[in-house]
Amino acid sequence: MPDFQYEQRLISRGYTKIAGVDEAGRGPLAGPVSAAAVILPAGFVCPFLNDSKKLSKKRRELLYTEITSNPEVAWAVAMVAPEEIDVINILRATHKAMGLALDALKPAADVALIDGLAVKGLSLPHEALVKGDSLSLSIAAASVIAKVTRDRFMETIDIEFPVYGFAKHQGYGTRAHIEALKTYGPCRHHRRSFQPVSQFSIPSTGRI
């Protein structure tokens, strides 16, 4: 389970406001990529908090509410849309979302713990942790917020475009999603630069 040891190491080096940063939605064929930044207070306790991928939807929703409703927690979330992903690529879009989330934090962080590899161009120093969402409590909190925020967005666009089943698969390339792409072509929420989306033609009807 994630804990506070990495945060404590940074505290021992003189940092006081440590943000955990994580993303959600790098792999799907549709929808934005999201990233969250979270500063947890000293002594924060949340027994079930873990990498969002290891949690049920119900547990993620409960943890999201617990984290975001805590007045001592500073958090921010940002998303980069599919059309920008297609222009700058998914890696740069992910890094942009992380930077936007960090820049939106109030109070601002003075250092960040990032899930994965180092990120170029961030506005503050950071330490990268591979599988950080399973190691750092702050990154785990960010993973939950990023995931829930994105899932809720996909549920919203599912209402407008029900033929794709976005609420069920969140834009990932499931068999049902691929079949819908074959039948209806991509909608404006699809990532046209991703395979196999680019193989399918844009539908002639203006609705999709």
Which strands sit side by side, in order, in the main sheet? 3-2-1-4-5
Kindly state the mean pLDDT as a whole number? 95
Could you spell the SSE succession in H and E letters? HEEHEHHEEHHH
Question: Cα distance, first to last residue?
Answer: 43 Å
Number of helices: 7
Q: State which percent range the strand residues make up.
A: 5-15%
**CATH topology description of the largest domain:** Nucleotidyltransferase, domain 5
Low-confidence region ranges? none
Shape: globular
Question: What is the CATH class name of the largest domain?
Answer: Alpha Beta
| CATH architecture call of the largest domain | 2-Layer Sandwich
Helical residues, percent: 25-40%
Q: How does the helix and strand content classify structurally? A: alpha/beta
CATH superfamily of the largest domain: Ribonuclease H-like superfamily/Ribonuclease H
Tally of discrete structural domains: 2
What is the radius of gyration? 18 Å
Could you give the count of β-strands?
A: 5
Main beta-sheet strand count, sense and barrel state: 5 strands, mixed
- State the assembly state of the protein chains: single chain
Q: Features of this protein?
A:
single chain; 208 residues; 2 domains; five-stranded mixed beta sheet; 5 strands
Layout of secondary structure:
Elements: H1 5-12, E1 18-24, E2 33-39, H2 57-68, E3 74-80, H3 82-88, H4 90-104, E4 111-115, E5 126-129, H5 137-160, H6 166-169, H7 175-184
Parallel strand pairs: 1-4, 4-5
Antiparallel strand pairs: 1-2, 2-3
Helix pairs in contact: 2-5, 3-4
Summary of the model, kept short:
With 208 residues, the protein is α/β, with parallel strands linked by helices.
